[in-house]
């Protein structure tokens, strides 16, 4: 297939209107119709159902669109990356982070990034839980650095940057707060306060419903932001999970961070929308890896 044929098919599949497709491609509606008919002869069947009132993809057309669109986007991204490499990197890279220690890493890496690529600027923004992935989907951010897992199959996950020891955050007034460490079975002693609106996969990894021994972990209230969760913990309404490093950044007199013995760590990695792997993003991820190795 030639490039104009691919673009015509994909645009018509999006618009489902010959005139609007022609306007977007700066050609005549007749040219659009001719191109589609040519593709249909090559395929051996109809790709679109046409009537006076509507245009719709046929089952064959839907299958072709599902397979062709990501491949075409990948080709476009490859050419964009090659072009960026030839002219030198430039522009603004918008990076979000979920925890202050991730923000610290971004600031250090951004300084080196600007030194190597003077035409590039890094903007960094604190975002938490659901808002982080909403910002990626809405093209408000180009990349996130946060705890795994990601929030869906549409996100690409980069290399692991670092891992932190897992902790249970408990009310300072609870008797368990006197312990130096806890086991995963101890998680069932208090209701677990969770972030609102996150994916089930995220909850399963960081806010489990059962201990490894099978004990049920009851659910406490939900909250949208991290400081809200800590306030609920401090008020004695339950416990929550975090990385042990959070104690140095979010210490409060009414909560205690207890490290787990033998629990999996909390892993942090960069994430972005698939198809959004610009040359600037790839270069910044490389620098993040350099700095995280010496962290």
CATH superfamily of the largest domain: Periplasmic binding protein-like II
Structural class: alpha/beta
What is the chain-wise order of helices and strands? HHHEEHEHEHEEEEEHEHEHEEH
Number of helical stretches of at least 4 residues: 10
Major sheet: 6 strands, mixed
CATH top level class name of the largest domain: Alpha Beta
Q: What is the CATH third-level topology name of the largest domain? A: D-Maltodextrin-Binding Protein, domain 2
List low-confidence stretches: none
Q: Share of helix among residues?
A: 40-55%
Q: Quick one: overall form?
A: elongated
Calculate the terminal CA-CA distance, rounded to whole Å: 49 Å
For the record, the count of structural domains works out to 3
CATH architecture of the largest domain: 3-Layer(aba) Sandwich
- Mean pLDDT, to the nearest integer, reads 91
Beta-strand content? 15-25%
Count of β-strands: 13
Characterization of the model:
- There is one protein chain.
- The chain is of the alpha/beta class and 295 residues long.
- The chain folds into 3 domains: 3-85, Arc Repressor Mutant, subunit A (Orthogonal Bundle); 89-162 and 268-293, Periplasmic binding protein-like II (D-Maltodextrin-Binding Protein, domain 2), CATH 3.40.190; 166-264, 3-Layer(aba) Sandwich (D-Maltodextrin-Binding Protein, domain 2), CATH 3.40.190.10.
- The chain has 10 helices and 13 strands.
- It has helices at 3-15, 18-25, 29-43, 59-87, 100-116, 129-137, 200-206, 226-234, 246-249, 279-293, and strands spanning 48-50, 55-57, 91-97, 120-126, 143-147, 155-157, 162-164, 166-171, 192-195, 219-223, 240-243, 255-259, 266-273.
- The strands form 4 sheets. Strands 3, 4, 5, 6, 7 and 13 form a 6-stranded mixed sheet that branches.
- Helix 7 links the parallel strand 9 and strand 10 (219-223).
- The two termini are 49 Å apart.
- The relative contact order is 0.15.
- The model has no long low-confidence stretch (mean pLDDT 91).
